[in-house]
Design brief:
With 308 residues, the protein is mainly α. It starts with a helix and ends with a helix. It has a domain of 133 residues. 68% of the residues lie in helices and 0% in strands. The protein contains 14 helices and no strands. The N terminus is likely disordered. The longest helix is centred in the first third of the chain and has 28 residues.
Amino acid sequence: MSENTEALSPKSSLFPQMSLAKAMLISARPKQWAKNGLLLLGLVFSRSLSHPDLVMKASLAMVDFCLLASATYLINDLMDVEKDRLHPVKRGRPIASGRMTPFTAAAMSIVLLVVSLALAVALGGPYAFSAGIYLLLTLSYSVWLKHIVILDVLVVAAGFVIRAAAGAVVIGVPISPWLYVCTMLGALFLVFCKRRHELVLLEASAASHRRILEEYSIQLLDQMISVVTSATVIAYSLYTFSAENLPKNSAMMLTIPFLLYGIFRYLYLIHVKGVGGSPEELLFTDRPLLATVFGWGVVSTLILYLVR
């Protein structure tokens, strides 16, 4: 057996033994749960933080989406196990490395699905519908849509929009059109950046791991990132002084510098530092980026609740 083949083998010594509980936790991808913070946007921007019942419902919805998302991650890992073993990073996942059996992963996924769907129903029909759409879209992506160029990134971005919309419907507040526009554009920015990182990381073997990558190029993705970056800045800037639920003195425009710095910092990390494959990991490992997101959240909340 060649050295390269041994490195990719699920029985390789490169993958140390770990407890089943730890393997299950890693497979649930808790770092990805940060995306579900989008479910709290409706709560914050509708000025509902002073209502404990709504805070509880929004928090439960976020927990529910964490469970639901983890179930879909397990399903996706089961479907892509052979391809993941060819990936320099994903080959270390518990299922691909052989540290968790497919049967255990399938059983865990079923349990998470049952619990999450039961909680979704308990939170109300409109929210349950949103969660169901997210599940259907995610499963369709894993089976089919991820193989269709451009549509694959639009579907992933739509998952972010559904999260934000679900956070609004669960507490019964109107969904602003700006929520759709800004969330979709921001998500597209992150997804295009992730695709670019995959092409750079995998180089010639990119298509063998993810077939859709052969339909993209670095140059094409750079152009798409430029378009989405400009559109995101314009859309968010328009939102800060034209949305009906914001202070009439346009104080929300003070948050625009946070958006600009966050985008430019992310582009710097991609082009100069060569990272960007996992936005949620960057959020917690890059202190300037984390400080920017935190600062945006604090300033936005203060403006919404203290400025009239």
